[in-house]
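step=predict obj=Extracellular solute-binding protein n=461
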Amino acid sequence: MRSRNTRRGAAAAAVLLSAGLVLAGCGGDDDEGGSAGGTSPGEGKAECKDLTQFGDLSGKEVSLYTSIVAPEDKPYKDSFKLFEDCTGASVAYEGSKEFEAQLVVRVKSGNPPDVAFIPQPGLLQTLVKDTGKVVEAPQSVSDNVDEFYGEDWKKYGTVDGTFYAPPLTANVKSFVWYSPKMFQENGWDIPTTWDDMLALSDKIAATGIKPWCAGIESGEATGWPATDWLEDVLLRTAGADVYDQWVAHEIPFNDPAVVEGLDTVGNILKNDKYVNGGIGDVKSIATEPFQEAGYPIADGECAMHRQASFYAANWKEKDPNLEIGEDKDVFAFYLPPIGEEFGNPVLGGGEFVAAFSDAPEVQAFQTYISGGEWVNEKGKATPNGGFVSANKNLDIANVASPIDKLSTEILQDPDATFRFDGSDLMPGAVGAGSFWKEMTAWIAEDQSTQDTLDNIESSWP
């Protein structure tokens, strides 16, 4: 699960950066921003219209650094071909499993890449504030994000009022995985409200099947799936405004609204009648690997598992023959709202494109990534699924898998309220530290809701 691995590395990177590293140089090309001059190779081609303003970039190279490695790197490399054809520039792709730590080293030594794919806003803020080497996005990129994305996405690429990084990919976390076959055979309807979901849980429990299965073990990051539960529910019980205040610590971590939210989660995860189907009791949630936690669904031992769109990849690890779709072996439905007051909240995550150079070819690359062409090129280059974007120009027909299609529809819904994973926005000591640890204790030791939130509040830097 790359999104969580990069998360752990990002926390380490934030610590290194905040320790006061002395950074020098801005790396990249020494050319000033703007046009390179000459006639663009894409002149007269409709698909290149946003890039011709940068002139002829033949012979120029954009160095790209990312955590995305083989085989996931191939669709990205293929999606850059249109950029290379339109501009004449080339993209030097470098993926590394040590991305965050090495990015810090390269920035420190004055040799950062031209562009880096940043896995969450927290790391972007750290890079901007502690290095001063991230380059403000050009107007063409800002205009693209205004046109193709909701305003929330631009906010996540902005630090202290300056816009730096357009979105790259996205994921939706507000999903409940289930077995369409099991639901059909038992006459269970997909719930559309929280009360319906609890009523369904009671109905399933009465049959002797545990309605829910869960697991939060993830090595050094154990606990993160439980933080997602709280974030998703808090958006539904308190709304996006309170959620934003909580993430920014404008209200304490143990605010009564958060207590209510975690107690609401506990009504499911700490309910012996509901969990942990096919695995064990409530405490087993703390030791069950999150990668395998949904597997009992495929075996008919539990009915529902709350986990993100990226969990689709784990079903193939369970059984390569399992099919994902609304009439297949497994699929997911949207985690229902709690009441009507706060609409249809969506919890998710994503990556961002930060630049360390303002050379024309770098500005052109950010413009391409943030525009309406790249997302469709990337969709077509990812035939096996695993690509989701909040870009409104992404044609659903170019999205391969059913869960990716559903995720894209949810992200493009004008009535949906999107919020980024809160722990990814919090200081590393909390978001990748005490929050994980205390949520684990909440499950494993039956620690009270109040003690759990009090402990996290006391750890806030």
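step=describe
The domain at 175-346+422-459 is CATH 3.40.190.10 (D-Maltodextrin-Binding Protein; domain 2).
step=end
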